[in-house]
Amino acid sequence: MNKYLFGPVNSRRLGRSLGVDIVPFKTCPLNCVYCECGATTRLTTELSEYVPTEEVVAELDDFLYAGIDLDVVTFSGGGEPTLHSGIGRMISFLKEKYPEYRIAVLTNGVLLWKPEVRRSLEKADIVMPSLDAVGEDAFRKILRPAKGITPGIVVEGIREFRKEFKGSLVIEIFILPGINDSEEELGRIKKACLEINPEKIQLNSLDRPGTESWVVRAGEDRMISIMEYLSPLNVEIIGKSVEKNRHDGNAVAAVDGIKATLLRRPMTIEDLQEYTGYNSKDLVRILEELHDKKIVKVENTPTGSFYRLA
Ligand code: SF4
Questions:
Q1: How wide is the angle at C-alpha 232 spanned by C-alphas 231 and 233, nearest 5°?
Q2: Test site for ligand 1: of 50, 105, 108, most ligand atoms within 8 A of the Cβ
Q3: Mean pLDDT, the chain, as a whole number?
Q4: Model pLDDT, residue 26
Q5: Which CATH number fits domain 5-237: 3.20.20.70, 3.30.2270.10, 3.30.990.10, 3.40.309.10?
Q6: Given this model, what pLDDT does residue 250 score?
Q7: Is the pTM of this model over 0.85?
């Protein structure tokens, strides 16, 4: 099983994507109430080489050398990738040796005020920071940030990055009904986005169980009205991926792939089908085995039964 790579999975936003996870699980400058990976255990803004950079580079090289069917290499996972001081070196390596793949970074964006973080991402093709709140109350209630992180420096960091970055900047806004969907808060978010001028905004809402049980999903009508409110910005509501994954029928690889995916986020059988491309019969069999061995557990919620690593 790879240590730092997971997938390829069918990302609903990016297509067929190889995930790269470069910080220890739940190491993050935020402790978002909606985080599908659970509560942050190491709340920090400290940049560091959390895992050996050259080990990640070697694992990427080993994996990509064979030439695989892939759209994008995505830095994401169960923590904040821009905390890793070697991310710039990893991106440079990929750009030089595997220029055929796009590189995406999913980030909470809160460290972009640091010039060294902006520099480290300059060779990526797509950077997707979040901007869930701009008002102080909503910001603190949703993100529960590490000391020193304020809405002002986050907006300023993304704005600076936008000026310098040559690639595509896509902002994600996670809608939490009753917290950041008031006209006042949406007005602040819209104003900040108009100043930043991203290529696109993606609206998201709860899909899998969040860290706090009171977080609920915004209804479809509400999401559409928010999309209209944010006009003339280029906004889309994130939909489920429809593309099916391709796999080689290797049972060990299937189990490892499912474990690596569930390590990072809880999923329903339908989610796993979309992400892995396995049919539901195979998936049920694999999940039952993992459940019997107490490797995965099931969480029944009003939105479905979610599997996660036990
Ligand atoms: S959602 Fe992202 S930014 Fe928020 S706590 Fe989870 S990993 Fe950190």
A1: 85
A2: 108
A3: 90
A4: 92
A5: 3.20.20.70
A6: 53
A7: no
